[in-house]
Amino acid sequence: MDEMYLGKPNTLSNIAWHRPQSATSRVEEELIQKSTRAAAHATDPVEKLRLLCLSRGATGILVLARIFRSLDNNGSKQLKKETFINVLKKTGLELTTAESEELVNKFDTDNSGSVDLDEFIKELRPPMSESRRAVVERAFKKLDKKGDGVLSVNDIRGVYSMEAHPRYMSGEETADVVMTRFLANFEPDGDSAGTVTLEEFMNYYSGISVSIDNDCYFDLMMRQSYKL
Prior knowledge:
mainly alpha; two-stranded antiparallel sheet; 4 strands; EF-hand-dom_pair; calcium ion binding
């Protein structure tokens, strides 16, 4: 994804991101346009935020979740109300103060004045069928050779098949360009030493999933991409 993540995630003044200059495929361009239109009419704040993220491309959920996780400095998986609302403002996502407050109330499960990040990210992620979740988890487990639940970018590089990517298949881009673009989705601030958790892997593919209507096609894409 081009021009998605701007600045270090723990610097609130630099966490805004913008729509990609060019989508990675026609399918993603349709996702961006469809989500942008739907967000203008969404009334539920969770659904609206989900659509606003997807209007930034398939990695929108991944990026926002990574920003919030990076601010959980003490590992409590909780984020104070003021920080949560401030982050939403800084990202440039078009939520009103009232909608942000409603989100806080929904995910402040114990009335502590903090948002439960696990519940928030789980709810924000676009729903996937059980079969789609299963094939994504299978791909992750194949990549996770150490079995510690964390991938390196090189783990992905060693298995991911560029031949299944639409821009390679169409002849628009070379294998090297496709690989560079794909890995950039998992490299915060261009850090090739970055790691990817199952949650982040699932967040990414939940965005991809929204743009693919057919379960069989999604399954085939995953199998071809990761040689399952």
